[in-house]
Amino acid sequence: MEKYDSRVFKTCLLGEDMIVFCGTAGHKLLFSNENKLVRTWWPSSVGKLFKTCLLMKAGDDAKRMRRMMMMSFLSPNALMKYVERIDMITQQHIATYWEEQIGIAESKEQGELLKWEDIQKMKYTWNVASEVMRLSPPAIGAFREALVDFTYSGYTIPKGWKLHWSTGSTHKDETLFPNPETFDASRFEREGATPYSYVPFGGGPRMCPGYEFERLLILVFIHNMIKRFKWDLLIPDEKFGYDPMLSPSQGLPIRLQPHQCST
Ligand code: HEM
After folding, report:
1. Which domain holds residue 107?
2. How many domains, in total, are found in the chain?
3. Which domain of life is it from (predicted)?
């Protein structure tokens, strides 16, 4: 995209004729026309891995499963109850897997667990996490399939063609995010991002249903890291790639230094 600055182009990806949509207009088209012009589509290898998952369902089946998830284990009430549990598991995880390596006695002390209200106060931390996901989106994007022939930006999109939207096509667009390569968590304090521009979790009816749950996991994890440790990267210029999720090429080794009075 950087090379050609094309907002829509055809190519061949994963052995399929594929149209790639870049930018907010493309995201809007794909996110707001589920079951009208497009439906979700994933390569057959993903289908083999996630046979009965929501990811692979379409139409009413998908709506039913999503409603069931959002009303049960991903409902706001369920999320509120998870906070203490996630905090406890994070602390146990750190104690079991990291503590023995760094040999600190302090982290064994029991502290009060986090509550839902504490999570709501972590606005700056969430801005930092959001900026990390803008610069390095964990997911590269997703796919759709054209249900009918339709026209976009003067081009005919044929029925059956596969369509791809990518987080990268808007997250580093300087008209949407000034100084796009600069890490600036405060950009999320100002007015909300332009619709369809900040899309680490996708958008529309197929948006990631795990979004709020993931917010809890990230905030509780960062809280425990900051409370207990200082850290630095052992390989500061380590490369990251997608396989298919963002992953560090060498496992992101870090050096942890426990704070003296961690609880
Ligand atoms: C940082 C973590 C995560 C990121 C960045 C992420 C991102 C995404 C993206 C980009 C999509 C595709 C949306 C689209 O097709 O437009 C997606 C779908 C999905 N995600 Fe996540 N996700 C994360 C964590 C989670 C978690 C924790 C869960 C479960 C609790 C989850 C469950 C799902 C499911 C079931 C779908 C398919 C939804 C559908 O097709 O209707 N994700 N996610």
Report:
1. 8-229
2. 1
3. Eukaryota
Would 210 be classed as within a structural domain? yes
Does the beta carbon of 94 lie inside 6 Å of ligand 1?
Answer: no
Span from the CA of 246 to the centroid of ligand 1 (angstroms):
14
pTM of the prediction?
Answer: 0.84
Assign residue 75 a region (left: φ > 0; alpha: ψ between -120 and 50; beta: otherwise). beta
Does residue 263 form part of some domain?
Answer: no
Q: Is 53 part of a structural domain of the chain?
A: yes
Q: Give domain status of residue 194, yes or no.
A: yes
- 105-117 as b/e: b if 16+ CB within 10 A: eebeeeeeebeee
Ligand 1 atom nearest residue 205's Cα:
41
Instruction: Return the CATH number at 65.
Output: 1.10.630.10
Of 71-85, 105-119, 138-152, the one with minimum mean pLDDT is: 105-119
- CB of 144 closer than 8 Å to CB of 38: yes
